């Protein structure tokens, strides 16, 4: 079977003669056979050369021949002295005659082994061969990740797009000069061809299949310092395409270069860049070989028994106010067991540092970023929960379980429509009797207007929020103290409902009782969110 179609014979000859590797020749000839790309590059070069010789013999006509690549030293000297004459503006180099056909094959093969492709800069040469694949897999295995499949991604230098355009324009002009047609078939994308070659090798070496939906990613970032400046002329021709962006070290991103190449006129490109491009001295470098596992999500409910423990680290102006937090007491164990890089903590609401959370606890979720370990049995999760509970008397965790990212949304769904129940110990300046507070038990669906409390105004926007007190029940203690049990709409500021916050919450317990009231203790007794699912003990 011929590696390329007969109609692409001249294209293959011209590309090989210009220093293009066999796999890039296949790409330019729109060859879609993945198996063909996986042939060893030297075997593929032999196949192409044999095809070209056979085609000539079959037709019995004089046609283009594959030029023998010169040795590296001569080639570099030749480029320095006369590259512009040979390459700029599509000038066609002198090609050998058919009479030299018998001497072409072996010498071309021998010298091509050390020649870096003028289009892919070696990506489809040594950088997809078994030795490089083993290097990637060694990096993966040393990182000690758990995974059952992988997705592979590759980042290519942006100048490859420039070189591909230059090769195409050079080919186009050479074919025109020779009076031959050039079909407008799509070029196989370099990334696609690279993955065709490397996927089966990685799968075999790692022992797991490649899967586009896998959460475990193996990525390789290639760079080619020798040709980094080849994109720079585009910034002059298309300045609007290259604008500084946050988190970008260079304006010459792949997308910016592609956008500029779509805009620049063909004649302007030919003026600034050799077509076809010359071969570089060096291969691309594998700048980074990285692994990343998709986030794992853990959910549960926590009880907080301390009145001196914030939910999250309490740091003001860079100074830590308290030594620990609910978040840290839980995350310490999860981070260690999952071997994650970092975490993100979220919960269904939050309590103040001096407020306890009792009952069945408050729902929480933790996203563990780039975990090395991802597989935990129900029994292992139970042991992890016990380890958290044994480590501190300030908190307890229940229903600890692995969940999906989408399931976490249920914790936040309709958050303000959910209800919460509280128990507040209240003090009054004037003496009270049982009958003075009994009427509170009869109040239902009391509508409040709460301006953003003064104590949180530094971190929340000023607004008036309408909230509901669904029901209350009072418990008389003595002449200046009583306990109030409340069932409220989520998001209600309970402390402000008691003392009024200088009139910013109306009505309030003080105004209802017609005396000054303040809150001494507050407990969250329940958060009525039916998530995560409760687990059997």
UniProtKB/TrEMBL annotation:
The keyword Coiled coil applies. Transmembrane segments: none annotated. Its main location: cytoplasm. It is found in: Cytoplasm; Mitochondrion; Nucleus. Keywords: Coiled coil, Cytoplasm, Isomerase, Metal-binding, Mitochondrion, Nucleus, tRNA processing, Zinc. Its EC number is 5.4.99.25. It is an enzyme of class 5 (isomerase). Residues 117-291 form the Pus10 N-terminal eukaryotes domain. The keyword Nucleus applies. InterPro entries: PsdUridine_synth_cat_dom_sf, Pus10-like, Pus10-like_C, Pus10_N_euk. This is tRNA pseudouridine synthase Pus10.
